[in-house]
C-alpha cells in the first residue's frame, strides 16, 4: 500500500548484508514517524512481536515465519528449530496465525536434510507473505460486494465503523477489515470510516487513521464509547472488524472493545437502524479445533504501563510520555474479547461471505 505515494509492504527480507535480515515498518513509531527496523536474529523478532513493532494476526504469522528463517542462521538442527518454534509461539498467545505459520514452517523444513533447510526457510516465509497478500485481496473483493449493495440501496455516503487496526499494517499488505473499504474507495464508492480510537494502545487513532489518510479514504476518529451513540443516530451503515482468532462456530476474538460494538450493532435493529456486524479474516485466522471462544481462547493480559502511560507529540513537535493514573492505582489490561457468533452477521473470507453457522462450508 502507499506511504508518501510509495508502495510498501509491512515486512520484507533483505539479502544485501553479510547475512540475510528482515526489515519491518516499526509500528510503535507511527503515526508521528515512519521508520524501518532491521531484524537480524530470532531474539529480535520475538521482541518485535512482543513489543508490537509488528502486530495484527496475519502479520504476526508472517513475522514468525521469518523468525524461523532467521533462526536457521544459527542452526538447522531439529532441536534448534523446535526450540525456536516454542519461543515464537509463546511470544503472543491469542492470535492463531502465529502458531499456524510456525507449524507450517516446521512441516516444510523438518522433512528436508539440514543442508537444504536455510534456503527453504527463506523461500517458505516469502510464500506465506505472498499468500497473505492474495488472501487479503480476495477478502477485499468479497467485502466490496457488501459495501456496494449498501451504496446502491441508499445512494449516499456509506458510513463504516471499524475498531483497532485491521488494515494493511496488520497484514503483509491490503489488510482484512480495511481491504473491502480500500476496494470500495478505489472503485469510486463514496465511503466514510468511523475510526474507534482503541484504547489503551490507540491502534485506531494512531494506525488506522494514518493509513486511511495515506490512501485518501475519508475518515473520522471517534472515542471508543461513541460508536453506540452513532448507531442509535443512524450514522453507521455497517461495522467491519478484523480478528485474531475465529472459532469453527463463528465466535470472533478481536481487540478489547469489539464485543461492545457488536452488542450496539445488534441492538440497533430495535431502533430501526439495522447495522450488520462483519469480521473480515483470512482462513489461517480460523481455528477449526475449537467451538467455544469464551471457554477455549486464551486472552492475552498485557502490561499495566499500556493503560497508565500515554505518548504523544507536544505543541513544539517533541514527543512526551506521561502517566495519566493516580499513583498506586491497580490496572487490568486484557488485550482481547470474544464476540459470540449470535451477534455476528457474517465472516468475510477469501472464499466468500459466510454466516457463522455456515463457516464449516469452507472446509468442504
TrEMBL record:
Pfam families: IF-2B. Substrate binds at residues 55-57, 92, 203, 254-255. Keywords: Amino-acid biosynthesis, Initiation factor, Isomerase, Methionine biosynthesis, Protein biosynthesis. GO terms for molecular function: S-methyl-5-thioribose-1-phosphate isomerase activity; translation initiation factor activity. Signal peptide: none annotated. The keyword Amino-acid biosynthesis applies. Belongs to the EIF-2B alpha/beta/delta subunits family. MtnA subfamily. This is Methylthioribose-1-phosphate isomerase. SUPFAM superfamilies: NagB/RpiA/CoA transferase-like. It comes from the Bacteria. It catalyses: 5-deoxy-alpha-D-ribose 1-phosphate = 5-deoxy-D-ribulose 1-phosphate; 5-(methylsulfanyl)-alpha-D-ribose 1-phosphate = 5-(methylsulfanyl)-D-ribulose 1-phosphate. One of its GO terms (biological process) is L-methionine salvage from methylthioadenosine. Catalyzes the interconversion of methylthioribose-1-phosphate (MTR-1-P) into methylthioribulose-1-phosphate (MTRu-1-P). Also catalyzes the interconversion of 5-deoxyribose 1-phosphate and 5-deoxyribulose 1-phosphate. Part of a bifunctional DHAP-shunt salvage pathway for SAM by-products. The keyword Protein biosynthesis applies. The record marks 164 as: Transition state stabilizer. Its EC number is 5.3.1.23. InterPro entries: IF-2B-related (IPR000649), IF-M1Pi (IPR005251), IF_2B-like_C (IPR042529), Initiation_fac_2B_a/b/d (IPR011559), M1Pi_N (IPR027363), NagB/RpiA_transferase-like (IPR037171). Pathway: Amino-acid biosynthesis; L-methionine biosynthesis via salvage pathway; L-methionine from S-methyl-5-thio-alpha-D-ribose 1-phosphate: step 1/6.
